[in-house]
Amino acid sequence: MRTSHHPNALERPRSRTALEDLRMPVQAKLAAAWTSFVFLYAYVDILAFYKPGVVEDILVGVVWEFDITQTWALTALTLLAIPISMVVLSMALPARANRITNIVVASVQVPFAAFNAVGQVGEAWMSFYVLGVALELILLAFILRHAWTWPCRTPAPATSPTTPHRDLDRTPQQA
Asked: 46, 52, 59, 173: least surrounded by Cβ within 10 Å?
């Protein structure tokens, strides 16, 4: 332990290596949020299998109020594929398209998530679904906030006192 004549000399010595708080790209934040959303969405459905009667209904071809048909399965897969695709799209799309896509898709997912909770109002497992939907809505709010407040690039000055002037926006014929 380091000795000092400072009044707080008995305090724990400060670490010489502080953790670096790196700036995370918006794309990575969005992809992580969509990944969390997909896991949460899937696990709410998986845990719902433990509700009494659910597996029995599935075995006779019924989910909630819907008959299990190919149309039902295609619809469910399509609805799940949207947030799943957002994981890769958040990393791959150019900034402007990325921002717009995240705002639109997250906005559409909000009422879809809320619809899932409304069907459980007054039911025995309502608290379970409300918690699941609340967590999904928090993630969607995170996505909307970060997509909406996506930082804009400020244009570099045409000339700088420390660097020679180079017009990078013009083609060689225009320069």
From this structure: 173
pLDDT at 1 over 60: no
* Phi/psi of residue 163, nearest 5 degrees: -130, 145
**Distance (Å, rounded) from C-alpha 47 to C-alpha 63?**
14
Give CA–CA dist 121/116, Å, rounded: 10
Length of the chain: 175
pTM: predicted TM-score of the whole model, two decimal places: 0.73
Alpha helices (runs of H) in the chain, residue ranges in sequence order: 26-48, 54-59, 70-92, 95-118, 126-148
Gap between the Cα atoms of 31 and 26, Å rounded: 9
Sole residue written with tokens 């002037």: 165
> 122 pLDDT band (50/70/90 cuts)?
confident
